[in-house]
């Protein structure tokens, strides 16, 4: 069972003073910071962030209970709300006076519900009567109003990743008005309505902020609505309804996640997966909205995997009762003191810990039996490469020809992603080579994600091991290799020569020369110089390989030098000379190379023929049969003189 935990809490949580030793604990989603606030005399604040740079401790004057506290981006300015009318600011910028200044909301009789930093020096106040967008001027210790909007507000929610603010309006609170923020600008987006369950009259439901979360999934902004089970409907349980919120255009309901149970839930988003925590069963479910199970404008989704608990873990005991040598204690999972924040944060105020929720991919292999669906799931995950390669290796263990269709499906899914990356890389290169233009400026270099499994990955981690595995039917090995090559060809991806070499070596190892001959004859294996050289090396095992190699080199047409080298190495000196003459390269070849090869044959008449050929070439090109000093043929001339005599040397033409 322990192998089944596909969710875990981060190994090194952020630790802060727990709720028993401080008055209040606040979390700032924009900076991922926990503020532990202790009052009494002066207010002590300890801020813990994801790293030491974002952690800070300070004291401030006690001016009443802190309702909200947040740093602007980069810890430059601190904002503290203590009343319903104003927010206090303190500069933390180096060399600026460390003084506090205050700002009241401009709308009379309005109460400030909270505030959000949208930039290091821009803040928005949310009141029950609207929003006020300000620029903070730290040097002047004042705020400048940039824009405001009057609207009745029940509650608000801010997504720091996209700088989009959601306001709940109307009596039932289910009409949401989004605003988008960008440097010094505030834009009103199209409002939309969340469909509430129908309840018997006179009862009326209202939308609570506890049932709403905002998060980015696959680079798109979604509003997630936790729709609780209604007895008046036939629904077997609660649902999470996803509304896609584009920057421009209308917000639409696009996905429904079926929870198939009722109770208390909380939502996270991890690695583009929606994670739904269920408190009473102490389990979590994960959904992938890209795994479409139904066509149409709204897709219904079942959980990708069976419900599982977060992996149990232990934490050091904190607080006054803790002794330094005390052993860690089990963490209370799904505790009622847990607070869940987007996208992937879980905080236990009672224990004083902040964790990042993480997905473990390895356990999913045993839980998702459909290899095609598993591959679709894995290819969209962040750290997927080694897990995908292990799936490919495991898939081939104990498999036979009946599994080939599954193997083909997996290869096609991998190569589709591989091809998309290659095309994007090619488009980027072409755009850059064409010089700067409006179209080329829009191209960004494609990011090579871990989902790009190329030929070298497959060769190194899967196929080369597979071909050497004992007890596997060699016909199945060849079928798998050819299936991978077929898939590459289908996506028009040039096959690397080492894959063909793997096929040839496997065929030779099992003496399947007839199949090798057919593969070459019908060009199943594409021509290449490395392949031709491999064929040459097989001549002692399979003599026809020599001719097959030469034929391949001739077809390549750019391999004339290689063909000459091959023929000379086989002491076929006249054959090499005939070939080089047939392609018109005989005026440029090295005389010494041919004369060396002729000497090594110990055939004096062959040496005579080759020597005479090059004398005649010298005569034709320079009007003199004598070899130039730069050709380094002195020893060959000496040998010729020794064997055939001085008079056998050609004489220069006399005028």
UniProtKB/TrEMBL annotation:
Domain Mic1: start-end pairs: 381-629
GO cellular component, one term: lysosomal membrane
InterPro entries per record: RMC1, RMC1_C, RMC1_N
Residues covered by the Regulator of MON1-CCZ1 complex N-terminal domain: 25-143
GO terms classed as biological process: regulation of autophagy
Record-linked Pfam families: RMC1_C (PF07035), RMC1_N (PF21029)
Domain of life from the UniProt record: Eukaryota
PANTHER family in alphabetical order: COLON CANCER-ASSOCIATED PROTEIN MIC1 (PTHR12897), REGULATOR OF MON1-CCZ1 COMPLEX (PTHR12897:SF4)
Protein name in UniProt: Mic1 domain-containing protein
